[in-house]
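Example 3.
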Amino acid sequence: MENNKKPFSLKVYAVALFVAIAVLLSVIVALTFKSKYVAFHPDEVARTYADTIVQTGDGYNAYKVSLLSLNEKYGDFIRQQYMYPVIYREAGYKPGDDTKDLKGYNDESYMGEKSKNDNGALQGQVIDTMYDYYVALAASGWDDYDRIFTSYFDKLVEVRKEVFGDDYITDEIMFTALESNVSTYGKTLTGTVDEFDENTGEQISFKSTGAYQTAYGEDYKFTASVKSENDISLDSYKAALDSGYLELVGTTADSIEEVKSYTVEVKDQNNNAVTSADIVVVRIGSSWYVDNSATDTSSLYGFYK
Amino acid sequence: MSDKTNKKYLKKSEIITFGIGLFGVALMTGWMPDYTATFFADFAFKGKGFDSVVMGNAISMVFLIAGFIGAVCELVIGYLVDNTRTKFGKVMPWVGFGVVPLAVISMLVFVAPNTNSQTLAIIWMFVVYSLYTAFSCAVESPANCYGSLCSPNPSERSSAISIASFLRSVGQSGGMVVILVVGLIMKAVMGQQQFQNAEGQGLDLVISTAVCALGLILFTMIFFANNKENIPFTQEKVSLKDAVKVVFAHKNLLMVSLTKLFGFGRGVYGTVSLYIAIYLLGSKDLKLALLLPMGIGTAVGTLLVNLVLKKFSTKQTFILFCVYGASSLSILFLVSRGIGFNDGLIIPFLILNFFCGLQHGNTNVTPNIMIADCVDEIEYKTGKRQEGLAYAGYGLFSKIASAFTKGLGPWLLYTWSGYAVSTDANIAYAAQTDSALNKMLMIYTIIPAVFVILQGVPILFYDMVGEKKENITKALMERREAANKTGEEA
């Protein structure tokens, strides 16, 4: 009897396997992306925004899921709108200008001897001096980011000049000072623990009690979750939009396809509600962003007092 | 050599596709360990509020246990390979079919379960990474074994192994290019900040893993479809006792494997390279610039070894490169001390780094050729052809040596050198004493140089070269011809 069994073809197997695995990997990546990528989930975007603020009083980093980060990196937004106008003040910089041919205070010719020889100690002094100013500006909330950035960087230039005796300033110096202050402020809320370098045994952090610990106990734990979705009409929302703000973040009202509002509630370790905030999120394309201009987060700061 | 031993068995395309196959496997296995560590530590359970100290210790344990599992799997897979008899050969089925679970499990390592239980999270890390380790052994070891089965002609075999080793060493760094390109594409598609948010969830790692897994399938399938084994397997079944005996009882194979153990400290330079970039060259961004000349040197060295092997025996080549390697590292040390740690050192340091990299070509290629020769010797003596176990033995010693390297490197840097950690929140890296800087330089140069010499010591007792090797090759060919004739007559 004739054997009709076809021989195993390595080439057919290779092609079929490649296609099958390509499909399988694509499905796994798509599912993972869909479940993990926060911007695809409006409730998670709202929750993340509130959670970032409430955990460490950090309204600065919360903006990374907001419209401020829509068209460019949040850091680039801050550079263009608030840092470069200070650095290139004399060159008459306007947001969006190319800085390549501009001479600013970041030019090394503005560096005095102290700037050239600083081993980090003077920069640390500047950061320490700025801390109280930062707390006064931002501890009650970051909703008015424009005032915070403008005032903070103006003051930083002033303080740095006092300490270093020159006009030299760069975006890196500005970010370092601000982010250090944001981080330090967060630690005053959460408290710190003794930490030792695992290799040298040297103590790198000391125990301190944070304001949250004082109010809710040493082992406090805050959990932010979406409590409810609120009614909001796209038409009335769009009618109330500030066109100047939309232009600033690089979008238009027509690009906004959907709007939702969520009440995010924060509970402590005993499941008691400690505070809440209504967060407005909008969909542009397939991603969701917090509309910080329509959101009041003041209740997420200072609730522990 | 006679005409018989000079006969060519490989098509040119087969030599290339062998290299492509090893490139594909190395793309995956080179990507996984480092990026898995960062995924487990930084992204897998982000925002779950797990105790970071417990998680940090658990991750260290995951890799330690995986190291042991890998060592055991090397032997088990070697044993299984040597007992495999199929129409595709003995190693090709492991490569051709083993890549399917390897690709899938590699992908699953980067898909963490959504759990709030730290215990469950730790169990998952142990299970999924152990599975990855087992499947990677099941593909990587047999793929390397192919070198000894591709041709009975030792010269042709050496050339094929050299080229494949070169492509494998390129593949090991391929993941760095993949993540760079994936990042650029994601930025272009999503915008800068959204990319950064996705990166914060480790999604660029997920996509890059998928790309590496697809590359694994593509390149190994090219290899699987185009290459065949050109040495028939012997029919005797191998017992587990024989398996262990193969690894430890054959002097030449043991000597080649011992090079790994004797030279385990060669790799400690990797631990200190970041600090060399910071303190000696002035910026941590120069780490890539530091490793790039060495990487290029390694690639060039891999090709250079092939040329040297045409003039010298494997034993002479190995020892020659050991002496050269130790000398180049010593020169780097002396030049650095002479110039001092300033800007003037950067260019000479990077140039000398290229020359230091050349020696790595030897360790990538020559032992693989020696093992193939040892397989011939074992077949000549015992009548059994045991590529699987021969490469498994080498792999076993490699894994033990790697564990020692991982222990020695941090000890030298953080304890012996007197490295000072920054305690200022605003300063990333503290100033170091001259003594600490000199010791860091020694960890990068002189200490590896000592181990480079030590790795050559076992090879002094290796004797599968010259007339002995030629006679064994000839005898095996005659034996196979006779076996073929008997088979045809029967």
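Residues 226 and 264 of chain A are 4 Å apart (CA to CA). Residues 72-190 of chain A form one domain.
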